[in-house]
Design a protein that fits this description.
It holds the Pfam family tRNA-synt_1c. This protein has 285 residues and is of the alpha/beta class. The protein folds into two domains: 108 residues, Rossmann fold, CATH 3.40.50.620; 116 residues, Glutamyl-tRNA Synthetase, domain 3 (Alpha-Beta Complex), CATH 3.90.800. It contains ten helices and twelve strands. The strands form five sheets. Strands 1-2-3 form a three-stranded parallel beta sheet, covered by helices on one side. It has a three-stranded antiparallel beta sheet with strand order 4-7-10. The longest helix is centred in the N-terminal third of the chain and has 16 residues. The protein is globular, with a radius of gyration of 20 Å. The two termini are 21 Å apart. The structure holds glutamic acid (GLU). Glutamic acid binds next to loops.
C-alpha cells in the first residue's frame, strides 16, 4: 500500500490537514506500506517557500515521516504537458476563451433555469466548443497559453460509459458514475489553466500514478472531484487507486477549517507547547 499527503503551500496547515496526514500515514504504516508527500504548488501566484518549509516542520512535529523525497509539482510541469498532449491528440480537449462574465451571462439567461453546479462551480455551457476529429490533431497544434477544457461528451462516448458505468471504491464501498451524471453534473472542466499550463485535476491524476499511490486519503470536500479523476485515469490508461474520503474537521460553529483560520494552525498549537498526542486527541484519532 502507498498513501500520500498532498498539501498546497498556500498557508499554514491546520487541524483538518493534520487529520488527513495522520489517517494517510497510519493507514500505510498499519499495512507495512509507504507514506509519501507531495507539495501541490502549481498555483505560483499563491504558493510560498515559507509555507512549504512549515509543512515539513509541522509534519515532523506530528511525528509523521515520509518515505521518499517530497515531489514538488512545479518540478514536473513537463509531465502534465505530455498528458495534455495525449488528451489533445485524442480529441478530448478544446480551447476556451470565455471570461467568467460570459459564462455567468450564458447560464443565467432566463430560458436556462437555475444554473447547475458541478465540482468546479457552474457546469460550463460549452460556448467555445467546436467539433473536432482527433485525426486532425497533432501535439504541435495544442495552444500553450490557453485554457483547455475536457470534452466530457467525447470522453464519455470513447469510454462507452453508457454501456459500462465508471466505478471506483470509496471507503471500501463501490461507487458508480453514469454517462448522464458525468455530462450533466460534472461537465467540461478546465484541465489546463492559462497561468499554470495545468490544473489541480490533471496534476493530481498524473502524480498519483507517477508516485504509485494505491490509496488516496483526502477530505470529503474533494469527493465530487473523484469522478473527474477516474475519467482522466481511464483516458490516460492510468490505474485507479482506492479512495478514502474522510470527514472534515470543523470549528465550533460547524464550519470547515480554512487556511486563513490561524487559530487552528498547527504551528499555533506547537507554539503553545501541545504535543502530537494532544493533536491526535483534539481531532479524535
Ligand atoms: N492539494 C489539495 C489540497 O490541499 C489536496 C489534493 C488531494 O488530496 O487530492 O486541498
Amino acid at each position: 500500500m502507498i498513501t500520500r499527503f498532498a498539501p498546497s503551500p498556500t498557508g499554514p496547515l491546520h487541524l483538518g490537514h493534520a487529520y488527513s496526514a495522520i489517517v494517510a500515514h497510519d493507514l500505510a504504516r498499519g499495512q507495512g506500506g509507504a507514506f509519501l508527500l507531495r507539495i501541490e504548488d502549481i498555483d505560483r501566484s499563491r504558493a510560498r517557500e515559507t509555507w512549504e518549509q512549515q509543512i515539513y516542520d509541522d509534519l515532523s512535529w506530528l511525528g509523521l515521516q515520509w518515505d521518499a523525497a517530497p515531489v514538488r509539482q512545479s518540478d514536473h510541469l513537463t509531465r502534465y504537458r505530455s498528458a495534455l498532449n495525449e488528451l489533445w491528440c485524442s480529441g478530448y480537449l478544446y480551447p476556451c476563451n470565455c471570461r467568467r462574465a460570459d459564462i455567468a451571462a450564458a447560464v443565467n439567461a432566463p430560458q436556462e433555469g437555475a444554473p447547475l453546479l458541478g465540482p468546479d462551480g457552474v457546469i460550463y455551457p460549452r460556448l467555445c466548443y467546436v467539433p473536432t476529429t482527433h485525426h486532425s490533431r497533432v501535439a504541435d497544434d495544442m495552444p500553450s497559453d490557453a485554457v483547455l477544457r475536457l470534452d466530457m461528451t467525447a470522453a464519455v462516448a470513447a469510454l462507452e460509459v453508457d454501456k459500462t458505468p465508471i466505478t471506483y471504491t470509496n471507503n471500501g464501498a463501490p461507487v458508480q458514475i453514469t454517462a448522464p451524471q458525468l455530462v450533466n453534473t460534472v461537465g467540461d472542466v478546465v484541465l489546463a489553466r492559462r497561468d499554470m499550463g495545468t490544473s489541480y485535476h490533471l496534476s493530481v491524476v498524473v502524480d498519483d500514478a507517477a508516485q504509485g499511490i494505491t490509496d488516496v486519503v483526502r477530505g470529503e470536500d474533494l469527493e465530487s472531484a473523484t469522478a473527474i479523476h477516474v475519467v482522466l485515469q481511464r483516458l490516460l490508461n492510468l490505474p485507479t487507486p482506492q479512495y478514502h474520503h474522510h470527514r472534515l474537521i470543523r470549528d465550533d460553529a460547524g464550519k470547515r477549517l480554512a487556511k486563513r483560520d490561524d487559530a487552528r494552525a498547527l504551528s499555533n498549537y506547537r507554539a503553545q507547547g501541545l504535543s502530537s498526542a494532544d493533536i491526535r486527541r483534539l481531532i479524535g484519532l
